[in-house]
Design a protein that fits this description.
Elements: H1 53-56, E1 59-61, E2 70-72, E3 83-88, E4 100-109, E5 115-119, E6 129-130, H2 136-141, E7 149-154, E8 163-173, E9 180-181, E10 190-193, E11 199-202, E12 214-220, E13 231-240, E14 246-251, E15 259-262, H3 268-274, E16 282-287, E17 308-318
Antiparallel strand pairs: 1-2, 3-7, 4-5, 4-6, 4-8, 7-8, 9-12, 10-11, 12-16, 13-14, 13-15, 13-17, 16-17
Length: about 325
């Protein structure tokens, strides 16, 4: 019995819960910025699905933020449509459309009452997802406060039976690195930050670029260490050493859409800048052509031959799921 991929209810299929949009992620390139989440709708509060007999019938014990200690309902549970019952209200500032939220859940088969699994409670096991009125996360939580727990009853779908989820809204993830500032490295490009965390890159284009990838940590995060093959949620901005200018497709800040991808899905220099860093960190990397888009004559059509400079904010990571 497979867990129903929560994000797949609204968009592309994903193989595991909490992994929306990651498995096919690629590298930033000169042809266009990777597609980000859809523009969130405004009326998030009204998007939460209504409660009903099915969701109200589920009894849950235990505190939000931890796996439920006991979940009971009379099976088979008839679920005609998506129903959501709020069990406990969180505290603090309500989430708003466009926020990236972290959540965790336990899943049960509505026909048998069997527990199918849980995910998101252990660190480094779930990427945040953007909440909006147009996606299932918004339909579960609306404009809830962090710490909220809900029961969601999902009707049967083409490839799965009806299921019951106990879902906890854990928090809102910043969209800029929050780590401790580190001393700049002499000889590397300089980076200044706008009020919202957007980086500005200054390159001495008269200087000879390095022939090996150079990496400096600008902010040291307090989160999990990113390992090879992990999925990450990042912001990045890239510039050409030859001109000092930003290039098309190398700037998530321009689209306000942090990018999910696997560390092994980028050019080698970018991968080197991610692996070994901690979540919450901001990294400066200078990538020569051999670790970037290859040797060749510098031109305006692609990134071949140019040394590239990236500032990368690591917002979250998730361990890759083992092959089934």
């Amino acid at each position: 019995m497979r867990l129903r991929p929560l994000a797949a209810l609204s968009a592309a299929a994903v193989s595991v819960l909490l992994l929306a949009g990651c498995s096919g992620a690629g590298a930033p390139n000169a042809s266009g910025t990777p597609s980000g989440p859809a523009t969130p709708a405004a009326d998030l509060c009204a998007a939460q699905a209504a409660s009903g007999a099915a969701s109200d019938a589920v009894k849950v014990t235990g505190d939000a933020g931890k796996p439920a200690t006991d979940v009971t309902f009379t099976s088979p549970l008839e679920v005609p449509a998506l129903q959501v019952t709020q069990l406990s209200e969180g505290s603090g500032t309500p989430v708003k459309a466009g926020d990236f939220v972290s959540f965790a859940l336990s899943a049960y088969d509505a026909a048998t009452g069997q527990k199918l699994g849980e995910q998101g409670y252990a660190p480094n096991l779930g990427l945040p997802q953007q909440i909006s009125a147009d996606n299932p996360i918004g339909q579960l939580f609306g404009c809830a406060k962090p710490g909220t727990r809900v029961v969601a009853a999902f009707p049967a779908a083409e490839n799965s039976s009806a299921q019951v989820y106990v879902v906890d809204l854990l928090g809102v993830v910043p969209t800029a690195a929050w780590g401790e500032p580190q001393a700049p490295v002499a000889g590397m490009p300089t980076v200044t930050l706008d009020a919202d965390g957007t980086p500005d890159i200054s390159i001495d284009t008269s200087a000879t670029p390095p022939t090996e990838t150079e990496i400096a940590t600008l902010k040291k995060g307090d989160g999990a260490t990113v390992e090879s093959g992990d999925y990450v949620l990042i912001q990045f901005r890239g510039a050409r050493w030859s001109s000092g200018k930003l290039f098309d497709g190398g700037d998530t800040w321009a689209t306000s859409s942090p990018y999910p991808g696997q560390t092994t899905g980028f050019v080698p220099g970018f991968t080197k800048a991610l692996e070994g860093q901690t979540v919450g960190s901001q990294v400066l990397v200078v990538i020569p052509p051999k670790d970037g888009y290859g040797e060749g004559e510098i031109n305006d059509k692609d990134l071949k031959g140019d040394t590239l400079v990236f500032v990368i904010d690591i917002l979250a990571s998730q361990k890759a799921q083992p092959a089934q």
